[in-house]
Write a structure and sequence with these properties.
The chain is an alpha+beta fold and about 120 residues long. The mean pLDDT is about 90.
Amino acid sequence: MIAKAIDMINAEQIKKVTEVKAAPEFQVGDSVKVFVRIKEGDKERVQAFVGTVIARDGGLGNNATFTVRRIAFGVGVEKVFPLYSPYIDKVEVERSAKVRRAKLYYLRNLTGKKARLREG
């Protein structure tokens, strides 16, 4: 009973968000540019986070997320973004890669040329 009510609320929220903007089309292994709106004081700006999608979680539900990884100044940085967040302006796919895993956590242990994914 409660689960049905939660599912109905989630469906309504997804419908509201998808009316405003469509869910971005990308897969695990894609190199993406995520444009995030950042609020600093009373000003708002858009900042890009460029990296590789290493995971998607939550299916098509309201709590769906995706994880983007990049190397910044020799250190691996990962950010988890909610798929239907109002702070995500847009997601651009820069290039796609052919992968055989749903989660690319093994990229955390690879550096340099070994961390490249095959174009597909």
